[in-house]
Amino acid sequence: MFPPGPPGLALLLLRLSVASALVFDDYAHRAALPGWAHAAVILISLVVSVGYLTPIVAAAALACHALVWFAVGAGSDAAALTVIFALDALALALLGPGAYSLDSRRFGRRLVVLQSP
Question: Residue 23: exposed, middle, or buried by beta-carbon count in 10 A (0-12, 13-18, 19+)?
Answer without folding.
Answer: middle
